[in-house]
Amino acid sequence: MIEIDTTHVWMHFWAIATAATVSAACALVGSFLVVRRLSLLGDAISHAVLPGIVLAVLAGGRPGGAGVFLGAVVAALVTVWLTNLLGTHAGLAEDAGAGVAFTTLFAIGVVLVSALASQVDIDPGCVLYGILELVPFDTVPIFGLEVPRALLAAATVLAVLVVAAALCWKELVFTAFDPAAARAAGLPVGIVSAGLLVATSLATVASFEAVGAILVVAMLAVPAAAAELLVRRFHLMLVVAVALGIAGSIVGYLAAWHFNTNAAGMIAVVLGIEYLLAALLAPGDGVVARVVSRESLRWRVACEDRLASLWRAEEGDAAALAPRTLLDRLAQARLVFGGRIVPGRAGGLTDIGREEARVIVRSHRLWEAWLGRHVALPLDHLHPPAEWIEHHLGAEVRGRIAADLEGDEGDPHGRDIPPEEFPRRAADEPTR
Amino acid sequence: MSTTSAGLEFHDVTVAYGRRPVLWNVDLTVPGACLFGIVGPNGAGKSTLLKAALGLVPLAGGEVRILGAPLEQVRARVGYVPQRESVDWDFPVSVTDVVLMGTYARLGWLRRPGPRERALAAECLDRVGLADVAERQIGRLSGGQQQRVFLARALAQQADVYFLDEPMAGVDARSQERIFRVLSDLRAEGRLVVIVHHDLRSVAEWFDAVALIDMRLVATGPVAEVLTPENLRRTYAGRLDVLDEIGRAVAEGGRTS
């Protein structure tokens, strides 16, 4: 059992605060990358900045210091420039060009770290996986409070990114959605795109110490991708992505503490779970919503079919009586409970049930009649499509079909099409 | 230099992708205030000509003037409707958001669209018949509706010259009719509308003048004069293999056979 003392609590607080800040910055930038379908560019940049960081540290920069950020941004821009160069002059496809550029730069970084291990205080393992747990031990005093250097760097980057996004909002969104039209309108599309790359490298470098080069990709892409599933407006997507990123960091860190494992890895796992939940629970397009919508349609169809078959039984078509499948029985019970069918073995339609059944049968026969008039289908092929479409016709379209069929009294099978409204009996008229 | 009254001029414009020319020596003057069609077979360079006018592809030679001036001076007066497939319609924005983008360039940096811009966007949506889907996410629209959103965005730009790239591609008949009506109104207001188009039947019905393009300008002028069997045969019947071959040789830095 871990002894809880205040030092301990502060340590975890700082680590969580750092992870959450880093995560928020990454989610912000990542949202733009995700909607531009550039998530893998985040991957490329997060790797390619390594030699820049190494060289900056070699030149005397401190990890998390301004020099290191500069080195990383330069390395990121070199990657992008190399990618374009490979694309335009070596005829390489853009993704292949990025693949060549960033792996080469990352490899140079790895070689540098190993070769200069004695002079550069960078641990290759830390570069890949980060050491969130050690972040609270490297602090700077601010107003008498010992604040982790990594948190300070991440908070600065987050502030810069938020301000930049707020100032260039229009340009960012237009460029992301329709770069050609934005360029034609005279917006500085090239500068905006380059700015996004710089922002990506800033967020990446800020995250490096905490989560490393591999897991930062999760922070960039996963909360944003989950948010895109959940909301349909870009500004909401940003808010949701940042919230998911922060929540994932907190939960992930606490889970890692509980299970005594790597915090950055656990955060990425929690982010993955968040995405999974979003895919399951997203309104409208989520797996659960789709299953619910499909099943509720099946249920409605079963109930309506039940009513229609009782109507046909009343017309004298005895074959349509007993419920057969389990779904039919359940539908029958639901309709009895809802006052559509009279309880008991005989189980005829109630007045309300008859009203509803009439509409279904009317829809069915109207559609058969419409098909018979407008579509070349043999008589015995009319029933199945009508069985399907009868559940989807509303009053307005029924009216239009009826008007179109004017003159035809019955359906193609010679049966009457029930009227839209029964003539009310005098007793039903509301009295004034 | 005297300023001309022409809406759009191409002076000996050649466009190349890489080093390979795809559009050769187009010399074309479009008068102001009309519906002007750029028509030709697939791969003829119609869209390329439009993009060249908008500065979206570099010119290998020649000059484009819009309203008598270089593009940079009149950009604010030029509206562009790109091909519908050129963007990702799953992008999380509403119909109104997209139309408001038409006001962004005029608003300039730092200013947000306000009540005036929103009113303008609503008016433009109404003109294209989409007022009732203003708050919908753009991915939930039909192809014809999406095309009309693009048109509404261009209208919100309040431009004097409009360029439309295949606005009728994959668009239902009702949307087509609506789009053509809006474009006719623009002409009636004294604006120039240049349309890359592929359907020869509607050219005669709606357009005032037309340019037949197949890697080079075949013919241009009023529709009735240009759409002759001879011109159409020269545009559609035979590819000019010689241009293809020379283009390839130029790209490879070699010589034709």
Describe this structure in words.
Chain A is elongated and about 95 Å long. Chain A has two domains: 214 residues, no CATH class; 139 residues, Arc Repressor Mutant, subunit A (Orthogonal Bundle). A two-stranded antiparallel ribbon of chain A has the order 1-2. Chain A is mainly α and 432 residues long. With 257 residues, chain B is α/β, with parallel strands linked by helices. Chain B has one domain: P-loop containing nucleotide triphosphate hydrolases (Rossmann fold, 3-Layer(aba) Sandwich). Helices cover 39% and strands 23% of the residues of chain B. Chain B is built from ten helices and nine strands. In chain B, helix 6 links the parallel strand 6 and strand 7. The interface between A and B is medium-sized, with 27 and 31 residues.
Q: Which properties best describe this structure?
A:
heterodimer; A: 432 residues; mainly alpha; Arc Repressor Mutant, subunit A; 71% helix; elongated; B: 257 residues; alpha/beta; Rossmann fold; 6-stranded mixed beta sheet; globular
Relative helix content of chain A: over 70%
How many domain units of chain B?
1
Number of helices of chain B: 10
Strand content of chain B: 15-25%
Largest pleated sheet of chain B: 6 strands, mixed
Low-confidence stretches of chain A: 425-432
Give the number of DSSP strands of chain B: 9
Query: What is the averaged pLDDT score of chain A?
Result: 84
Structural class of chain B: alpha/beta
Q: What's the β-strand tally of chain A?
A: 2
What percent of residues of chain A are in strands? under 5%
**Helicity of chain B, as a percent range:** 25-40%
Number of helices of chain A: 16
Strand arrangement, major sheet of chain B: 5-6-7-3-8-9
The CATH architecture term of chain B is: 3-Layer(aba) Sandwich
Q: What is Rg of chain B? A: 19 Å
Question: SSE order of chain B in H/E notation?
Answer: EEEHEHEHHHEHEHEEHHH
Radius of gyration of chain A: 33 Å
Q: In what order do the strands lie side by side in the largest sheet of chain A? A: 1-2
Largest sheet of chain A: 2 strands, antiparallel
- Distance linking N and C termini of chain A: 78 Å
